[in-house]
Structures are given as C-alpha cells and as structure tokens.
Amino acid sequence: MTELLGIYNYWIYVVLMMIGFYGVIAKKNLIKQAIALGLFQTGIFLFYISMAVVDGGTAPIWTTIGDGSIKALGPYDNPLPHVLILTAIVVSVSVLAVALAIIINIKWKYGTIEYDEITAMDRASGGGDDD
Amino acid sequence: MTGTELPLLAMAVPAVGAILIGVFGRWPNIRELITVLTSVTLLGVVLQILPLALADDFWSTTWTAEPLVLLEMLPGIPLTLKIEPLGMIYALIASSLWILNSLYSVGYMRGNKEKHQTRFYMCFALAIASVMGIAFSGNIFTLFVFYEALSVSTYPLVAHKGTPEAVRSARVYLGILVGTSVGLLLPAIIATYYFTGNLDFQPGGVFQEALANERIVGPAIGVLFFMYMYGIGKAALMPMHKWLPAAMVAPTPVSALLHAVAVVKAGVFSVVKVIIYIFGTTSLVSTGQGEWLIYVAGATIVIASCIALFQDNLKRRLAYSTVSQLSYITIAASLLSPLGYMAAAIHIAAHAFGKITLFFAAGSIYTAAHKTNISQLDGIGRKMPWTMGAFAIGSLSMIGVPPTAGFISKWYLLSGAWETGYTFVIVVVLLSTLLNAGYFLPIVWRAFFRAPPEETHHASMSHADGNFGDPHDHGHGHKDHGHDDHGDHGEAPLPIVFALTCTAAGTVLLFFFPDIALGLAEQIYRGLPLP
Amino acid sequence: MIDIQANLPALIVVIPLLGGVLATFTGRGILPWAWASLVTGATFALTLRMMATLLQSGAPYISYELGNWPRWWGIEYRVDLLNAFILLVVAGVGFITTLYARESVNDEIAKDRHHVFYAVWILAITGLLGITITGDAFNVYVLLEISSLTVYALIAMGKDRDRRALTASLRYLILGSVGASFILLGIGYLMMVTGTLNMEDMHNQLMRLANLDTNRTVLVAFAFLLVGLSIKMALYPLHMWLPKAYTYAPSAVSALLAATATKVGVYMAFRFLFGIFGVGFSFYAMPSHLILLAMASLGIVFSSLAAIRQNNAKSLLAYSSVGQIGYIVAGFSLANPDGVAGSIVHIFNHAVTKGGMFLALGAVAYRVGGTDISHLRGLAKRMPLTCGALALGGLGLIGMPLTAGFISKWYLVKGAMGSGMWGLVVVVLFGSLLALVYVWKLIEAMYFGEPTGRSAEAKEAPLSMLIPIWILVALSIYFGVDATFTGETATRAAAGLLGGTP
Question: B80's torsion region: left (phi>0), alpha (psi -120 to 50) or beta?
C-alpha cells in the first residue's frame, strides 16, 4: 500500500495528463481543447518535479561553512529537472499563446470556435479532398 | 583503337539529333532534314561497329576488352556499354529501319497534318537513343535503365493525338510496360545481384557459381526466370500483351516503330539476352526451370493468331500478328539450343522487315484512302499497286514462304525443334503458319481480286488526290469529312511509297543475302561455352 | 574576432537564431527577403564547411561543448557523417526555398507581415538545424518546440488564401504538442534511469543496466518516444495532421516542410532508436521493428491510394509524402546496412524531389491561382518549364531509373531481400505502381488536358521561381544518375548507426 500511496504525486501526474488528453480528444470547443492541452502539459511538469525529489532533501543551497569551504546544507533535491521544467513551462505557455492566436483568427474567419460547425462549413465550401 | 567507345557514339548521335530537332523545331524542313541526317549518321556509326562484331577473334578481343563505363550509378554498379553480336543485329535493324521510318514519317505526318510534330521527332530520336543503349548494354542493369527510358520516351508518341481514347490507351501502354518492369523485372535484377553479386552479361550466365555452392536453389532460379520473362512486358507474352493492341491509336510511323523496330524488339531482345547471358543454357537445362516458357509461348502464338483472324481493323490485326510473331522468338530462345538461339536472332531481323512493311502499307492506305478496316479494302490493290504489292511480300514473310526472310528463321526454328525433340513446337509452328496464311492472304486477295465498292463521289472532294507529289494537297478534308470520302484516290505520298518499297525489297533481299544476320547469329553460337 | 572554424557547430545554430530575431526589424519591401536569403545562405555555407571539415578530419565525429561546459553538465553539439548530411539537406533546401519565396510570398501573404513571416521562417530552419546538430536529449525537445511553434505559425499564414489553413494549423498544433509532450516524457523517464541528458552518456548508462530488456522505466520511455516520434515524422496512422497542413500552407512553406520537417523527425528516430537505445534493444529485444514495418507498409499502400483520390495537386503530393515516409521508416526498421542506407538516401532524394515539386506547384498557384487538377489542365503549353519540373519530379516519385527515387528503391529492395522480408519487397514495388497512377494523373492533366479559365492565358513562371525549382529537380536527376556520393555517405552513416555510436 505504501508503495502505491508513497508515489501519489506520480498518480496525480497520470490523472492530470489523462484528463487533459481526454479534453483534447473529446471537447468540441477549440478554447477548451487548448486548455486541455495546457493541462496535459502541466501533468508532465509535475512528473519532472516529482522525479527530482530526494528523501529529506531541501533546496540546493550551498554556503560557506565554518572552515571557509563551500558545502551544501544537507541532502538536496536534484535541481536539474527543475531547470528543465522551467524551459518546458515557457514552451507550454508559447504553445498556448500560438494556439490562442490561431483560435482568434479562426473566430474572425469562421465566426465560430465550435469544431463541428467549422467542419460543416469547410465541407460546405467543398475542398473536394477527404481524409 | 579498339572500338569500344563506338557504342557511346551510337547513343550520342540520336540524342544530339533530338536536341537539334528541338532547337530547329520552328522550321519543319530543317527539322526533318536533321532527322534524316541523324538517322543516316547513326547507320554509318553502327556499320563501323559491325566488322568488330563479325570478326573471327571477336570473343577473344573485343568481348574481353574492358567495357565502356558510362558512369558509376551506384557504388559498384556501373552503367556499361559493350559490343555483342545479338545486340549488333538489333542495333543494325533499328538504325537502318529508322532511316526509312524517318522518310515515311515526313510523308505521313505532313500528309495527315498531325500536330506537335517537333515533339514527335524529338521523342522518336530519344527512343532510338534508348534502343542503342539497350542494344549495347553491358549488364542487365544498364539494359533495365534504357528499357525504362524507352518506355517513357515512347509514351508521348503513343498518346500523340491527345484524344481521350489516345490518352487512355497510352495509359494502358505505360501501365503494363512500367508495371511489369518495376513489379517483376526490377526485383528480379536486384535478387540476381543479391544472389550472385554480378549483373554482367556473360555467355553461360551468372548463376553457375551460386548454383554450385548452393547460394541459390533450382526453384529460386525458376521463380527468377518467371519474373524475368513476365517482367519484360515488351515481349508481349500472354497475358501481358494488351498494351500492343492498345498502342494502335498512335500514328502509324509510331506503330511501325513500336512493332517492328524498337519496342517489341527491345522486349524479345531482352528475353533472348537474359536467357543466353544471364541464366545460360546450363543453369536452365540442369534445373529444368525454363521449360514452361515453351508452352506459354506456344499458346501465345496460337491464341494471338486466332484473335487476329477475327479483327477487322487492319492495325489491330497486325498488332495481334505481332504478339504471335514475338513469341516465335521467345519459343526459339526457350528451346535452349544453339539452333534455337540462331532462329531467335534471325527472326528478330526477319520479322522487323516484314512487319514494318505491313505497317507502312497500313499507314499508306490510311493516308491516301483514309481507310482503317479490312472490309473496306476491296479492290484497293488496283489503285495502290505499290502499297499492296509490298503488303503481299510482308504477308508472305509472316507466313514464312520463300523467297522472303521469314522462311529462313522458320527453317532454323523447325531445325532447332527437331534437334531438341519438341514435337509441340513443330505442331505450333505448322498450325500458326496455317493461321497466318488464314488472316493475311484474304486481305491480299480482297485487295487485288475483289471489285471495288460502288463509289460515292462527293462534290466537296473536287481536288484530285491522285498525285504523288505535293503532300500538302492530301489531308484537306480528312478532318472534316471522315471515312469513305476518298473514293477517288491513288497512291500515298512519295516518301511513304518509297519507304515501304524499300522495306519490302529488304524482306526479299534478306532471304537471298542473309550473310550478315547469319554471321552474327553464328557469332552468338561461337561464344557459348562448350557443353 | 570569433574563430569560425573552431565554433562552426555553434554558429550553424546561432547565426540563424540571431538572424531570425533580427529579421523582425527589417521593415517592409524587399529587405526581409534579402535578409532571410543572406542568413540562410550563410548558414548553408557553414554546413558545407562543416561537412568538408568532417570529411577532411577523418574523425568519426566532431564534438563541440557549448560555453565550454563539460558534456555531462552542459550541452554538447556533435556532428558525425549522418547529421552533417542531414544538416546539409536542411540548410540547402532552406536556402533554395528562401530564394524562391520572394514572388510567392509577395503573392500569398499580406505586405505588412513579410518581416514577421521571414523571421518565423528563419527560426523554423534554426529549430530543424538545432535538432539535427545537438547531442543533448533535452535540447532536442526545446529545439523541436522552436521549430514546431514556428511551423504552426507559418502554416496559419496561409489563411489569406484559404481560411482552412487555420484549422489545419491548429490541428497540427494539438497533435504536434501531444507528440512533443510524449517525447518530453520519454526523455524524462530516460533521465530517471540514466541520470544524464547527454545522448552518448545515456547510451552508455543503458548498456550498463543488467536488466535492460525488462526494466519498466526503460520500456515506458521507449513506448512514449516511439509514439511521439511517430507523430512527428507523420508515420501512418499518426499522419492525420500532415495532408491538410501541407495543402493549405503557403507554397514556399509546403515545400520547406515536405523537404525537411518530417525528415528531421526521422533523424530524431535514428538518434533515439539507434543511438540511445541501441540496435539490440530497439530492433531485437522489442518487437518495434515489426510494428514499424507494418505501419510503414500500411502507410505506403493506403496513403498512396488516398493520393490517387485527391483532386488538389498539393494534397495529392501531401499524401504521397506520407507514403514516402513509409519507405524511409521501412528502410531503417530493417536495421541492416542496405535498409538503413536506403532510408538515409531517401531522406535526401525525397527532400529534393518533393521540395522541387511543391515549389513547382507554388509557381502554378502564382500564375493560375490554385493547384486543383483542373488548374493544371493543359498547362504544359503555357508553362512548359514548370510542368516539365513537375513531370520529372513525378518520375522520381515513381522511382524511374536515372532519377534519385530509383536509387532509394534499389537500396530498400536490396535491404528487404537481405532480411528476407519478401513481403516488403512487394509493398515497395506496389507503392511504386500506385505512385505511377497518381503521378500520371498530374501528367495527363498537364500534357493532354484542355486549359480553362486562367490556365488558358497563364505565362511561364518568373525566373526567380524557375531557377530554384530547377536546381532541386536537377539535383534529383543528378543524384539519380550518379549516386556514388549520396550512396557512399549513406552507407557509411548507416554503418555508424548500426555500430551503435550516438
């Protein structure tokens, strides 16, 4: 039991990701799709952060101690995933921004952000090509 | 000078000709002069190569010399050109008939006011360049490359008219030819390379060593043989023959080129070449995997002849006759005996002269009288004596009656069949001779001995069509009036009549002076490894 | 003064990165295009020099540590024969399409957004180059997102011609982001096992694991990466984003994407499957080669069939691209020298062939206003050079001898025979026949159709378009006639991959 609960944040990451994934697939509203995509990626942030955890670890702060040498205050969490995930957060925000920009343009050109309506309009205008 | 670079020259001449034709396309007279000059130059070059191939010490000198490497296409697989007797026959026929075909084309294309003539002459020259590449290819890979080049360069010729029917037929043409070559021939070649590491043509074939050390087994040879034979769709082995009748929509000079000179001959030439120089007699005899070809080819001969019997369209009947005649060559080669190989080689030449005469005659009738069906030909021999005379000679050659070239090849074929003891082949040859007579002689009889139909004279056809001279006079009204308007016509334009007379004469001359063809055929025989 | 030679790998990414950002300040008129040409041209020159340096040095690879941080801490750029080759393709095609873009972009994109277009355009190329050159797994993800984000924007810019560009772009954005997230997850799991992000270190650590084949974390990483990469390289049936994106993107963008974007996806697959997991794990311990082969074969057949049904030449070529990716994937999943070499050769051959064809279609769109088959009818009389390029490119797609496509097919078929995969031989050749059908649809329309509407009075494309088109088409012919350079490079690169060095 402890093995399962002890890694609860991994459970949360999977659940978050799947909620997001479901939204991306199932939602017909483009804004909702974009939000779901954000949620999906947020799940991954949690995963990265969780994997950096060290038992009893603190922030990775090194400081000068009595004899003048520089040392960590104690066991500390792996800072590398934190750094990585900062980048990933930036990426995720950019993706969201581009997605929203496109959706705004869709709203201008089509007058709607409902996927079904857009598909119907595309079909009516007739591209002749099919998937 | 060893002469090994001459094949390159033979390829370069028509290729350069094609470029010049394109450059001078705006001036028809210059353009057509270039075509004729190029064809004459090409024959000159090929005649330069001939003594090398005929020389007594050919197999020890020219053959063993380093082949001419055009370029190394893939690491370890170069495109090479090499002189070889069978290819020599093919090159000689193609280059000599091209001259006549060029003259004929000038008459025909002008007489029928065809469009896109520059494209026509360019593609024609490119096709001949590909033919030279096939004839002198030093390995099966080179042959394949030029084989495909030939398919692509003849496509615009088949689709020439641009009508929906022409485009559709050209689609069948290209579909079958490229389909078989990419679907079967290419994997067969790659598999050959995979098993033997060698794609060079060599007497005795490339599989001996692989068979000896059991890298390849008999049934695999059989599968490969099947892939090669059907992969070479141009040989029109049934049921891969459909492209030939489909290609009949093309202008007649193209049909003549396809059926007599370049394309079908590229097919059977490749078949014979693969049998002799890739598989080799020994590999096929020892594994017994080649025998089915005799029966398939035999069946093709008889079935195609039967179909021909019921065709009323003259060109379609000729097309099925070609399907049948091509399998003569295939069946001769598949006897796997020296006499059979000789018969195949000679029949390539004999059929070429005979069939081109027949097509020239068909085109001549179309140009002068605008008739395409056999039932319309009653009494036409009286108006077009030269054309129908030539047609008669061509027919006799197809049947194999002396004094025409067809007799010689049939003689060798029967000897080969006798020697190897295939009664089936003898029966097929006799049966098909009867069938040939059955579908060619009625045409001749009709043309000369039936009374012409009641002539309906249209007022609009006031201009006299009975002249040889100015081709521009012909064709007026062809587009406007359709069939049977030419009740009053004479012979076709002079270039046409000249060309078909020459080829008819060639058919007879080849009977009396077969030395060159026989010499080359014997040369193949001499190159074979002793059993 | 910067030592160009010593910093060559970094400059290949830094120059277009800065160039792209600076392009936003180039204002209007011809300046944005000129700047983009300059930057991509300089980058192309650098990749050429990179290749020359690598070949001269004779070393298996050149390593470059960014900011002089040791590779296990910092980011390492590593250039071996494989990625030098891909860099050359990406930068070369990037440069040629940039040259081409001027007229086409003038025509298709609003005048006040040209500087933005070219900025994003250069950054897209930067991302693709960066993915190719880096030796750091996380860096791959970051650069992947840079290239993806810019590509979404580029596709969306087709909205001035057809609003469906927007939906196509959003669809690609969502699928692409999911794919990239899977890759990010995969990299995360790999880091959990190996504790490093450097590709070579990762490989070494993995090889040290005793229970590599059964290690759950490694398996999960592998699964995530495989799916993510499949989306990115548009492997059937995860290709759904591609056809519409290519169809509605601006002409120059379609050409750039078709020639480079999915190819870089394949390159990532090379690095992860061969470099990090190793041939033994990816293709023998896991049944992935069977899955990949099956998907590739299905892709070749079904997307070629779909291509036949298309009435728009651009979407016809787009479906054809999905099929061609099938060939590339089938080649490397064989994991034998000929197959992998065929895969690498086809990356190049398909890039020049398809790139040239998309450029030619762009010229058609420029003159006629659309790329439906009906627009192409009878166009050969009006635009002989453009149509000639399309026809020659088409022959390359079929794999006719003397075109580059034939060379790829030769290697692939030989590779399939070497592994005894006779079914794949049949699929590859059947695919060629299907290609014959869809290419002939174009050729018959161009050469035997009757022109209508704007096609009837169209003029030949301007020289600034024709030259880039014909450079690519000429390359596809040249490397079909003499494939010794591409063939040997690919064979050596394949040997390197199969040897397991990342």
Answer: beta
pLDDT digits (tens, 9 = 90+) for B180-236: 998 899 999 988 888 888 888 888 888 888 888 877 887 888 888 899 999 998 888
Kindly report the nearest CA distance between residue C401 and chain B, in angstroms.
Answer: 5
Query: In which domain, by residue range, is C375 found?
Result: 287-502
Domain tally, chain A: 1
Contact B156 C402 (CB under 8 A): no
CA atoms within 13 A on the CB side of B70: 27
Mutate to test the interface with C, among B151, B186, B199 (most CBs of C within 10 A): B186
Q: How far is B70 from chain C (nearest CA, A)?
A: 10
State how far the Cα of C189 lies from the Cα of C194, in Å rounded to an integer. 9
Tokens of B353: 């002269």
CB C23 within 8 A of CB C36: yes
The two structure tokens encoding residue B359: 């097509």
Does the pLDDT at position B459 exceed 70? no
CATH no. for residue A78? Answer: 1.10.287.3510
Q: SS3 for C403?
A: coil
Rounded to a whole number of angstroms, the CA Rg of chain C reads 21
Give me the interface pTM, i.e. the ipTM.
0.90
Instruction: State yes or no: chains A and C have 3 or more CB pairs below 8 A.
Output: yes
- What residue type is assigned to position C426 of the chain? V
- pTM, 2 dp: 0.89
Q: Which has the closest alpha carbon to C10: C47, C36, C35?
A: C47
Contact criterion met (CB < 8 Å) for C399 and B182: yes
Give chain C positions within 8 Å (CB) of A102: 152, 156, 166, 169-170, 173
- State which residues form the domain around A78: 2-125
Number of domains, chain C: 1
Cα C180–chain centre separation: 17
- Residue C87 sits at φ, ψ, to 5 deg, of -55, -45
Phi, psi (rounded to 5 degrees) for C78: -135, 125
What confidence tens digit (pLDDT) does each residue in C332-374 have? Answer: 998 888 999 999 999 999 999 999 999 999 999 998 888 888 8
Q: Under an 8 A CB cutoff, do A95 and C156 touch?
A: no
Q: How far does C93 lie from chain B, in Å, by closest CA? A: 23
Distance (Å, rounded) from C-alpha C159 to C-alpha C106? 14
* Beta-bridge mates of residue C372: C312
Instruction: Return the pLDDT at C48.
Output: 92
CA B354, CA C80: separation in Å to the nearest integer? Answer: 63
Helices (H), B288-371: 292-309, 314-334, 338-369
Of residues C224, C230, C156, C217, the one with CA closest to residue C191: C217
Of B377, B354, B353, B375, residue with least CA distance to B365: B377
List CB contacts of C373: < 8 A, sequence separation 6 or more.
C311, C312, C313, C316, C441, C442, C445
Q: C76: part of which helix (H) or strand (E)?
A: strand C76-80
Q: In sequence order, what are the beta bridge partners of A22?
A: none
Half-sphere exposure of C104 (CA within 13 A, CB side): 32
Residue C123 lies in a domain: no
What's the pLDDT tens digit per position in A4-56?
Answer: 666 788 888 889 999 999 999 898 999 999 999 999 999 999 888 888 887 77
Of the candidates B252, B258, B261, B254, the one whose C-alpha atom is nearest the C-alpha of residue B93 is: B261
The answer to whether B370 and B436 have CB atoms below 8 angstroms apart is no
Asked whether residue A131 is assigned to any structural domain, the reply reads no
Domain presence at residue A109? yes
Residue C33 placed within a domain: no
Residues 6 or more apart whose Cβ sits within 8 Å of residue C478: none
Q: For residue C344, give the 3-state DSSP assignment.
A: helix
Buried b (16+ CB within 10 A) or exposed e, B107-136: bbbbbbebebbbbbbbbbbbbbbbbbbbbb
Q: Which amino acid is at B20?
A: L
Report d(CA B130, CA B13) in Å as an integer.
11
